[in-house]
Amino acid sequence: MPRLCSGQMLRAFGLTEPEAGSDAGNTQTRARLDGDEWVINGSKQFITNAGTDISGLVVITVVTSADGERRREISNIVVHAKLANIATEIESCRLLVQKAAWLKDRGQNHR
Fold it and tell me: What is the Cα–Cα distance from 90 to 78, expressed in whole angstroms?
């Protein structure tokens, strides 16, 4: 966090997708929980602040609800830029879950 606050590191934002554009409600990139890891699959383009020498984190929008769930759940996940490789294709990117103490169970934070 200190590097972000001091401007030594940038946070990138990945919303736009080839098929969905910048419509968050039509996000196609999916993330599923597999044990203690999120598995992310999808495509992003035009990632704001990506590709610089100081890009460190990427916040990406993903669908986290399971197929067939009544309510479509869209979440933001923070990915280390090197892990995501600031690529347009994100395939089977695996992230270890580090749940913050203040977070409630999945889907309960904004109800």
Answer: 13
The helix (H) or strand (E) run that includes residue 14 is strand 10-14
What does the alpha-carbon distance between residue 78 and residue 32 come to, in Å, rounded to a whole number?
Answer: 14
Amino acid letter, 29: T
- Beta-carbon contacts of 21 under 8 Å, excluding residues fewer than 6 positions away, are none
Q: Are 11 and 4 in contact (CB under 8 A)?
A: yes
Residue 83 in this model has a pLDDT that exceeds 70 = no
Q: Report CA dihedral (33, 36, 42, 46) to the nearest 10 degrees.
A: 120
State how beta strands 30-34 and 37-43 pair.
Answer: antiparallel
pTM of structure: 0.74
- Who contacts 100 (Cβ-Cβ below 8 Å, separation ≥6)? none
Q: Which domains does the chain show, CATH number per domain?
A: 2-96 (2.40.110.10)
Tell whether the model's pLDDT for residue 102 goes beyond 50: no
